[in-house]
User: Fold this.
Amino acid sequence: MAFVLLIFLSMSHYSNAEEVFDVRKHLSTVSRYGAVKEITDNSFIPSNIPQGCIPIHLNLVARHGTRSPTKKRIRELDNLSARLEVLIKDAEERHLSLERVPSWLNGWKSPWQGRLKGGELISKGEEELYELGIRIREMFPNLFDEEYHPDIYHIKATQSGNIGSQPKEKFMPAVVPRASASAVAFGMGLFSGNGSLGPGHHRAFAVTSESRASDILLRFYDCCHNYKHVRRYYFI
Assistant:
C-alpha cells in the first residue's frame, strides 16, 4: 500500500534565467510557479527512474501558490508609488531628461492601493497548485491507483502566526489561508476525475493541520529552541 504525504508551507523559489531586464518582473519577494516555464537555458535536467525500479512512496513539500501582497507589502507599495511620484515631479521641475525612465513609471499606482487586507491566494495561485496536482498524478500514476483514504493520501497545511502571538480568547487553531487554500487546489487537481461531484468528477478529501506548538516538521522554527538561539545570535 503506497503512502503519500503531501505538505504545504512557505518556501522560496528560484528566479528566472538571465533575460532582458524588466523591473516589473522583479517586484515580488519570491518567484511564482510559472516562472520556471520561462527558463530558456535548458539547465534543468530531470532525474530518471532507474530501470527496474518503480516509485512506491512520495513526500512533497510545496510552497503555497501565488498570493496577493501582505498588508506590510501593500503599505510598502503605496510608499513606493508616492516616492516615485515625488521623484518624477522633481525631475520635471528641474527639467531633467526622462528619456531613460520607463514610461509606465509616470503615474504608476499600486494595484492594491487602499486595500486593508492581503496575503490571500489569488486565482493564478489556485491554477498553479491545481495543475501541479495533475502533473504529480500523471508523473506517478501507480501511486494513485488505490481508492482514496485520508490515511493513505495525507494532505497537511501549516498554521499561522508565532506561538503566543494570538489573543488568548482564540482557542481554535488558525490555518494559514493561502496554505490551506493551496492544499485544496492541489487536491482538486490530484484527485480530479476520480469522484462523483460536479462535471469535473471531483471528490471530497481531508486537509489537516497540527498545533503550532508541536509541529516539528513545518514549524520547526517555533518548536526548536536551538534554532531560535542560532537565528537570534547569528542571523541578526
Observations:
- The chain has five helices and four strands.
- The longest strand covers residues 3-8.
- The helical segments are 71-93, 123-139, 177-190, 220-223, 225-234.
- The first helix runs from residue 71 to 93.
